[in-house]
Amino acid sequence: MLKSDNRLYYAVGCATGLPFAAYNLYYFGSIMGGMEILFGGLNIYNICNALGLLVSPNRGILIYSPIVVLAVFGYFKSKRDPFYNLMVLSILAEIAIYGSFVMWSSGGSYGPRFMTGMFPYIAIFMGLYINTLSMEKNKLAILCMSILFAWSVFVQIIGVAYPYWLWAQAANIDTARAWDWHDMEIFTGFYAGPKEIHPIEGLKSFLAYCTHW
Fold first, then answer.
1. 149 and 136 part of one domain
2. What span, in angstroms and rounded, lies between the C-alpha atoms of 99 and 101?
3. DSSP state for residue 116 in the 8-state scheme
4. What pLDDT is stored for residue 2 in this prediction?
5. Are 81 and 205 a contacting pair, CB within 8 Å?
6. Are residues 110 and 17 in the same domain?
7. Which domain holds residue 26?
8. Model's pTM, two decimal places?
9. pLDDT tens per residue, range 167-210
10. Is 57 in contact with 179 (CB distance < 8 Å)?
C-alpha cells in the first residue's frame, strides 16, 4: 500500500496529467498528441533503439550527463518504496516510448532532449544516494562523483556558450550518425571555440519567440 503522503503525490500527478491527456485525445485522437506521427510502435526492435537515448555518443543521457548514474544507486537506497517504484516505471516508460520514435535522436537538438522530462525524478534518486555518503568512508565514490559532475557541467557549458549546432549543419541528422563516436556533437562545438554572446539580443529573440506563440 502507498503511504498517505505518497497517495497525495500520486493523486496530484494524475490530476495534473489528465487535462493534457484529454486535450491530446480530443484534438489529435491520441494520448501522445502531435507526436503520434513520430511513433513507430512498441516492439522489440524499436525499444532496443532506446539504448541510443542512454549511451549513444550524440544523444545518450549517460554521455551528456553521466552524473545521473547516481540515480540508479539512489533507487536501491530507497528500499523500493511503492511510490519510488512508480517513479522508476514512469522513467522506463518514457525511455521506451521515445526510443520507439522513428526519429528517436530528436533532430538537431543538443543532447538527449527527449529525456529532460525525467530529470525531476532523477534528481530525487540522486539526492537519496548522495544523502547516504560519508566524506570519510566514501572518498573513492566522492572522487568518481566529482569527475562525473565536472564532465556533466563541461558538456552543459558547450551547449550554452559554444556553437554545437555546427554538428547538425555539417550533414544530415539520422539515427546512424547519432552513434558515430568519431563525429561527436560535443567536440564539434568545443573545437570551434566559444560563440560571441549578446545577452540583449538573445533576450529580444526569446521575447519575440514567446509573443509569436
1. yes
2. 5
3. G
4. 46
5. no
6. no
7. 1-38
8. 0.78
9. 888 777 777 888 999 999 999 989 988 877 665 655 665 566 55
10. yes
**Count, residues in the chain:** 213
Integer angstrom CA distances of residue 189 from 3, 55, 60, 151, 164? 47, 20, 17, 15, 4
In this structure, are 58 and 83 located in the same domain?
A: yes
- Which cell goes with 138? 566514501
What is the number of domains present in the chain?
2
- Asked if residue 60 and residue 4 are part of one domain, the reply reads no
Q: Sign of the CA dihedral 35, 41, 43, 49? A: negative
One DSSP character per residue, 169-208 reads: HHS---HHHHT-TTS-HHHHHHHH-PPPP-HHHHHHHHHH
Question: Can you tell me the distance from the alpha carbon of 80 to that of 83, in angstroms, rounded to the nearest whole number?
Answer: 8
**Cα–Cα distance measured from residue 116 to residue 156, given in angstroms and rounded to the nearest whole number:** 13
Position 141 pLDDT exceeds 50: yes
